[in-house]
Specification:
With 128 residues, the chain is of the alpha/beta class. It has 3 helices and 4 strands, in the order βαββαβα. Strands 2-1-3-4 form a 4-stranded mixed β-sheet, with helices on one face. Helix 1 packs antiparallel against helix 2.
């Protein structure tokens, strides 16, 4: 883990390229030293239906949720959160400067119990 989940208003589609944002978020998470590359999953969901503030159709939003497994210290979580949110705000800065934009981030630590995963990604990383 983590799972990095982006939700964004459809009106951002032509103003911010989402795949490079996902890559920037993943690389930032890895660079913190808190999360292993093989454990990261990052995805984005475009929201067709939304209402922001007073309903101005020019307003946009992007929310990033990081779901992480238990076991990290508060300092590790704080360091990672700050770095990931900074990467998000840096990437979205051109849009932020040109229109109404609400950016938000939350990190949620999942409980230790009832968490299952199965993958062989470590066997394939770096093999093409």
């Amino acid at each position: 883990m983590p799972h990095l989940i982006v939700e964004y208003s459809a009106n951002l589609e032509n103003k911010a390229e989402i795949p490079p944002l996902l890559e920037a978020l993943v690389e930032t998470a890895i660079a913190t030293g808190v999360f292993p590359r093989a454990g990261i999953r990052c995805r984005a969901h475009r929201c067709e239906h939304y209402h922001i503030a007073d309903g101005n159709p020019g307003f946009a939003f992007l929310h990033l949720q990081a779901k992480i497994g238990a076991g990290r210290t508060e300092d590790q979580k704080e360091t990672a959160s700050r770095a990931i949110f900074q990467a998000l705000t840096d990437y979205m800065q051109p849009v932020y400067e040109s229109q109404g934009l609400a950016l938000s981030f939350e990190m949620t630590e999942l409980p230790v119990t009832l968490k299952y995963n199965h993958n062989n990604l470590r066997d394939y990383i770096g093999k093409g």
